[in-house]
Amino acid sequence: MPESSAKMTHVPDIKASEDAMQQRMKGWSWPAERRLSLRTSMLVYVILPLAIILVVGGAVGLRELEHRMERRLQEDVELVGRAIQPALSRAVNEGRIDSVNRALEAAFSIDRVFGAYVYDSSGATIATAGQQGSLPSRRQVSQLVQEGDQAGEYGEVAGREVYSYFIPLTNSGARIVGLLQVTRRGSDFEEYLGMIRVRGIAFVLLALGMVSGLVLYGHYGAVGRHVGRIVRSMGAVAAGNHEARAPVAGPTEIAQVAGSLNAMLDSIQKAEQEVERHQTTELALLRQLQGSEKLAAIGQLSAGVAHELGTPLSVIYGRVQQMLRAELPEASQQGLVQIKAEVRRMEKIVQQLLNFGRGGPVQRSPVKVHETIAHSCDALQELAQSHGVALTRAAEGPEAKMLLDGSALERAVANLVRNAIQAAPGGKVRVRTHADTSNVRISVDDNGSGIPDEIRNRIFEPFFTTKSVGQGTGLGLALVHGAVRDMGGSIRVGNSDLGGARFEILLPL
Questions:
Q1: pTM of the predicted protein model
Q2: Tens-digit pLDDT profile for residues 106-132
Q3: Rg of the chain in Å (alpha carbons)
Q4: Could you check whether 14-23+34-195 and 361-508 share the same CATH topology?
Q5: 8: alpha, beta or left, given left = phi > 0 and alpha = psi -120 to 50?
Q6: 333: pLDDT strictly greater than 60
C-alpha cells in the first residue's frame, strides 16, 4: 500500500530577518512618507509572523490529522473483515456456500462496506456481495493466499476508487483455504477528509482572526490610544496652541515620553517668554535711547538758538525802554509797550529753551516731598483764583525725605498744576501726594476736557502742544518729563476721576 506524504514548508527566521534588515538600513533614515506606522509595524512584525506560524503549523497538523483519520477509516473496514473472518473460514472449509453468502450479505449491509468477496485457495471467486466489476485476477489472489498476510491497498472496483482489505481464511490446522476481500468507497475517504480540511482551515482562519484582533486591541489599549493623544497634542502645538500638553497616561514608558515632551514644551515656552521679555526690554531701551538722543539733539539746538537770540532781545528791550522815557505820541507809546510785552514773552521762551538744553550733573540734596509740593501749590493759588479754579492739595502718609533736586521737582509740579489750571477754567484741580515704604506718588487731576488717546504718546515730545498759537511753546511737559527722568522716576498720563486728565509722577524711595 503506498504511503501518503506531506510537503514541508520552511518557516523563516524572523529575528534573523529583522537583524539583516536593520543592518541594511543602518546609517540610512527613511523619508517620513515611507515610514511604517506603529499599527502597520505590528502587522508586519507580529501578526504576519504569527500568521505564517499558524498556517504552517496548521498545515502540518491538518496533514497529520488527515493521515490519522484515513487510517481510522481503514481500520473500520479491517474490523468488519476480522468480525466475519472466523465464520467465513469455517464455512469455506466445510464447503457451505450458503453460509458464506449469508456472512457476506451481513457484512455488505453495513453502510461503510462497498463490497465483500470470497476466493478459494486457487484464486477463484466463491461468493460476492455488493458491487460487481473488475476484481483482482486469480494470479493476484493466489499470490496473496500464498503470502498469507493481511493487506490493504487502494484500487478500482466497478469503475470506482476503493480501499480493499484482504484477510486469509484458514482451517483448524491454520492452513489457508481462501481469501476474504472487504472494500470501501474511496469517496468516503475523500468526503470525510475534505470535511476535516474545511474545518481545519476554518479553525486556522478563526485562530488567526482572534489572535490578530487581540494583538490589535492590545496595541490600541496599551499603546495606540496613548500615542494618538500625544500625536494630537503635538499637532495642536504645531497649529499654534502652545498651551497644549500631552496627557501623562498609559504604560510607564509612554507616560515618561509624554512627561518628557511636556517638559520640553515648557522649557521652550519659558525660553520664548524669556526671549520676548528681553526683546521688549531691548525695544524699550532702544526707544529710550532714541528719545534721549533726540532730546539731546533738540537740547543742543535749543541752547544754541537761545544763546544767539538772547543778546539781540536784550538790545531791543533796552532800546524800547529808552524810547518809552522820551515824549512820544500816544500811538507810538502804545506800540512800544506792545513791542516790550512781546520781547518779554520771547525772553521767557528763550529762558525755557535754555532750561531745556541745560546739561551737566543733577544737584541732589535731602528734600521733604510734601513740603516741596505745598510750596508749588501755594505759588499758583493766585493763578488759580484768576481762572476761577478751586486748587486743593492732599498729602497721604508720613513725610517722605528723598535725595533729589528739589527745585527741579518744584518746577515740574508747578508746570503740571499750571497746565491743569489752564485746562479747567472755572473748574477743579487736585494735587495729591502719597508716600509708602517704597514709592512716592504725586498726582495732578483736573476736570477739564482731558487728553485724547491718539495724542497721549506725543504730549511729552518737545514743541508739541495743543494750545493755540502764542499760548504755549510745547516745552513745559518735555521739561517735566526730563526732570522726572533725571530723578530716576517715571511719569504717565491717564483719565482722572474728576472727569479730565491725570498726570502721575512715581518716584522710588
A1: 0.40
A2: 776 766 677 778 887 777 777 777 666
A3: 60
A4: no
A5: beta
A6: yes
Give the span between the Cα atoms of 261 and 224, in whole angstroms.
17
Domain segments of the chain: what residues? 14-23+34-195, 361-508
Percent of the chain with pLDDT strictly greater than 70: 75
Distances (CA, A) of 88 to 30, 32, 180, 183: 80, 82, 8, 16
Closest CA to 76 of 200, 188, 168: 188
Domain at 14-23+34-195, CATH class: alpha beta
CA 390 to CA 426: how far, in whole Å? 8
Under 8 Å between Cβ of 196 and 182 = no
DSSP, collapsed to helix, strand or coil, labels residue 358 as coil
User: Are β-strands 501-508 and 490-495 bridged in parallel, bridged antiparallel, or unpaired?
Assistant: antiparallel
pLDDT for the residue numbered 346:
73
Three-state SS at 400 = coil
Answer positive or negative: Cα dihedral of 41, 43, 46, 52: negative
Distance between CA atoms of residues 482 and 358, nearest Å = 11
Q: Residue 89 in contact with residue 100, Cβ under 8 Å?
A: no
At residue 403's C-alpha, the angle toward residues 402 and 408, to 5°, is 95
pLDDT at residue 386 greater than cutoff 60:
yes
Task: Report the pLDDT value the prediction gives residue 446, as an integer from 0 to 100.
Answer: 92
3-state secondary structure 10-33: CCCCHHHHHHHHHHHHCCCCCCHH
Instruction: Based on DSSP, count helices (H) and strands (E) in the chain, helices before strands.
Output: 13, 12
| Position 29 pLDDT exceeds 80 | no
Query: Of 173, 117, 107, 104, which is closest to residue 144 (Cα–Cα)?
Result: 117
Superfamily of domain 361-508: Histidine kinase-like ATPase, C-terminal domain (3.30.565.10)
SS3 432: strand
Mean pLDDT of 36-44: 75
d(CA 357, CA 299): 4
Contacts of 4 (CB under 8 A, 6+ apart): 67, 70
> What DSSP string describes 110-128?
STT-SEEEEEETTS-EEEE
Give the integer Cα–Cα distance in Å for 113 and 193. Answer: 18
Report the distance separating Cα 284 and Cα 278, nearest Å. 10
| d(C-alpha 11, C-alpha 14), whole Å | 9
Q: What does residue 365 show for φ and ψ, rounded to 5 degrees?
A: -155, 160
Strand partners, 502: 445, 494
